[in-house]
Amino acid sequence: MTSTTLRRALVRSLGRPPWSPGVWRDTLFTAAGIPLALPMMLGIVSPDALWPAFALVLVCARLMTAAQRGRLRALYGVEVPPPGASRAWRIGPLRLSLNWRQLVHHLVAGPLLAVGALGVVYLWGVALVLTTLYAWVWLVPADAGVRQDLAGLDVLLTVVGVVLIVVTPWLTAALAWLDVFAAQKLLGPDRAEALERRVEEIAESRAGLVDAVDAERRRIERDLHDGAQQRLTSLAMNLGLARRTLKDAPPEVMQVIVDAHEEAQAAIDELRDLVRGLHPAVLEDRGLDAALSGIAARAPFPVHLDVDVTERIAPTVEAVAYFTVSEALTNVAKHARAGRADVSVRTIGGRLRLVVSDDGVGGADAGRGTGLTGLRKRAASVDGTLSVLSPLGGPTTITVELPCVL
Questions:
Q1: Which of 176, 258, 260, 297 is the most buried (most CB within 10 A)?
Q2: Which residues contact 143 (CB under 8 A, 6 or more apart)?
Q3: Phi and psi at residue 209, in whole multiples of 5°?
Q4: Using N-to-C axis directions, what is the helix angle for 61-76 and 50-59, rounded to 10°?
């Protein structure tokens, strides 16, 4: 249950009957905070005990905060994450397990809420006593004089007790809401820490998603390579065998066989390119150097490849690097009118640095070209960066930096 959901539930609890379990849970929750605030309450009542109480709060801050969080977790199912260690105070070599917001809770908010809890408990006691007063008066013997002393007041006091029975759950729910609100704001992380944690969660989620997508690409590549591609290859071999052996077949039949054989060969080539585009098997079998060598060999212009990878690289990052170089060389072939290209791959300080340059006409703009935009998005998917230097007349240099490990 989130804090927002809890606060809404507490607001809805204002209309509950006093005998409902939620009312007694709110009462138990508020009353459970009284023992945790007793040291400061005694210190406020007795000035001589103020400084010992303050010292006790400093020493027992970790236990008090854990108890407050346990109270929320046990009764409402609300988790209040602890603040970061960087927010803790230090006094010389001693690191205190609290920050200023926790100190405000334990020294100010906690005692005030405990006073409110004492008032709620007192109101519940008064309400129960006054509600049953009429019955108790009639149980007293008539000659005791109590009936005469309370004549005319017993009914009035009973009505007051009933009113308190109705009103006290409202006050209890409101006090519980304030208690939860104070714990969320003062005992948990501040807004900056919450944003930092959210960013970390999003980064971890994004990394998991990228790994899952890469694993799915690998699975599809294996299925196509081991299934459809093998069947097409067997079909092409059978058609080729029929083409060579059925020499006395009618020309019309032979033409059908020839056409089918050529279509099967074309389908195999297209499927091979598709499989390579999903995830090249050579990348997983022989590594990034061999996979990039295959890209350079298939390019329609000379490509000088220089790979020096000395650090371990995550498989997902290897795949991003492979497709980045492949798409960059494809863009060079389509738009740059280049005579040659150079590809340099290095690992420097825990990052993989890719540099693709060509001697083309230049003028590449990452803001306009969809190819460069796709490269930038691919690099950003693993917290990488891409920069383009492409003056008119050339040359064009694309630099990509990727983390070696996600």
A1: 176
A2: none
A3: -65, -45
A4: 70
Between CA 217 and CA 120 the distance in angstroms is 62
Q: How far apart are CA 279 and CA 214, in angstroms?
A: 8
Contact of 330 with 362, CB cutoff 8 Å:
no
Q: From CA 76, how far away is CA 387, in angstroms rounded?
A: 51
Rounded Cα–Cα distance for residues 296 and 306 (Å): 11
The pTM score is 0.50
The answer to whether 279 and 323 have CB atoms below 8 angstroms apart is no
**Residue 147 tokens, joined:** 């009936």
pLDDT tens track for 381-395: 788 888 888 888 878
- In three state form, how does the secondary structure of the chain look? CCHHHHHHHHHHHHHCCCCCHHHHHHHHHHHHCHHHHHHHHHHHHCHHHHHHHHHHHHHCHHHHHHHHHHHHHHHHCCCCCCCCHHHCCEECCEECCCCHHHHHHHHHHHHHHHHHHHHHHHHHHHHHHHHCHHHHHHHCCHHHCHHHHCCCCHHHHHHHHHHHHHHHHHHHHHHHHHHHHHHHHHCCCCHHHHHHHHHHHHHHHHHHHHHHHHHHHHHHHHHHHHHHHHHHHHHHHHHHHHHHHCCCCCHHHHHHHHHHHHHHHHHHHHHHHHHHHHCCHHHHHHCHHHHHHHHHHHCCCCEEEEEECCCCCCHHHHHHHHHHHHHHHHHHHHHHCCCCEEEEEEEECCEEEEEEEECCCCCCCCCCCHHHHHHHHHHHCCCCEEEEECCCCCCEEEEEEEECCC
Cα 101 from Cα 183, distance rounded (Å): 10
How many CB atoms are located within 10 Å of the residue 148 CB?
9
CA distances from 174 to 15, 30, 34, 151, 165 (A): 12, 10, 16, 36, 15
Q: Are 338 and 301 in contact (CB under 8 A)?
A: yes
Q: What is the pLDDT of residues 269-307, one digit of tens each?
A: 776 766 665 666 677 778 888 888 888 888 888 999 998
Tokens of 156: 């009035």
Under the banding of pLDDT at 50, 70 and 90, the label for residue 406 is: low
